[in-house]
Structure formats: C-alpha cells, structure tokens
Write a structure and sequence with these properties.
Blueprint lengths: L3 H29 L3 H13 L6 H7 L6 H26 L4 H26 L8 H27 L16 H6 L2
Helix pairs in contact: 1-6, 2-4, 2-6, 4-5, 5-6
Length: 182
C-alpha cells in the first residue's frame, strides 16, 4: 500500500463526516420547514450533476487505470441516476406523485451503483490511483451523493404520510379528523 491509498480513503471519510455534520446541523432543520415536495427537490439537485462521471473517459485517456468496462459501468449508473433525479424534480415541481416513486427508484439505484462502483474499484485496484479531477470527484462529490441519498431515504420514510403538497394524508387511524372535514 502506498501513501496515496490512505490519503484518498482518509479524505473521503473526512468529507463524509463533514457532510453528515452539515446535514444534521443545517440541512435537516431546513428540510423540516419545507413541504415534502420542496424538501425532496432540494435533495435531488445534488444527484442531477452525477453526469460528471463522464469525466472518467478523459481520466482514462490521461492514465487513470480503469478498464473500459469499469468506466462504462460507472457512467451508465451515474448518468441514469442524473436522469432519474431531473425527471423526479420536474414531476415534483408539478406535484405529480410519480416523482415520489422516482425518488425511491433513485435511492435504490444509487445504493446499487455505489456498491458496484466500490466492488469494481477493489477488483481493479483503483484506491489511491485517482489524481486531479477524479480525486476531487471521489473525495468531495461522492460523499455528498452518499449523504444526500441517506437524507432522501429519510425524507421518504419520515414524511410518507404527507402529500406532495405538504399536508398530511388522512389514514385509517384518524377517523375523527375525517369526520371533521367539510
């Protein structure tokens, strides 16, 4: 193991810890003051820029030792995630409930993509090989995606009884509220 491996891993963990602190101290309270759709949209914007993964082809040409199959797998997963995120934003802005379903799809797609990318990085011995833009993406953007995905899943679960307009849906356990409606 060379000194680049622990440097990259350490920087990624530090960024992850910083983003978690920001999420806990600032983002979560801010999300609580917003309607469900607005909160989801804010978290989705981070994912829209996942097309930055296309840079892997330039990095590969400049000597980043990833296979064409590995690079293609990364690009497909991230570009697909960016498309899902942008589509979900457009639907949620129009208050179309399918946007919530796309948020769930994005959460599962991102988790799967992250696992595949970690596996591929291990198989191709890429830890510590990143430099320049690839290093910046891995150290700053990838942890932001991970934290954003966690926040997105939390919002989807915690606010599942809210409509996308921001009001609470009346469930079977709330018959008295149902009777009070005009």
């Amino acid at each position: 193991m060379n000194h680049l491996e622990p440097a990259q891993a350490g920087a990624q963990l530090i960024s992850l810890a910083v983003y978690i602190a920001i999420a806990r101290w600032h983002v979560a309270p801010w999300l609580a003051q917003r309607g469900r759709a607005e909160a989801l949209i804010a978290l989705l914007w981070v994912h829209v820029f996942r097309y930055v993964a296309l840079q892997i082809f330039a990095a590969q040409r400049e000597g980043f030792p990833i296979s064409i199959d590995g690079a293609t797998e990364i690009v497909i997963g991230d570009v697909f995630g960016a498309i899902i995120a942008m589509t979900a934003i457009m639907l949620l802005r129009r208050r179309i409930h399918a946007g919530v379903a796309l948020c769930w799809i994005l959460v599962f797609e991102t988790v799967g993509d992250t696992v595949l990318n970690i596996r591929g990085g291990i198989e191709e011995h890429l830890m510590g090989a990143a430099t320049g833009v690839v290093w910046m993406i891995l150290v700053f953007f990838v942890p932001a995606i991970v934290v954003s995905t966690g926040l997105l899943a939390w919002q989807l679960v915690a606010r599942r009884h809210e409509t996308i307009e921001g009001t609470r849906e009346l469930g079977a356990a709330e018959p008295r509220l149902r009777e009070q409606l005009p």
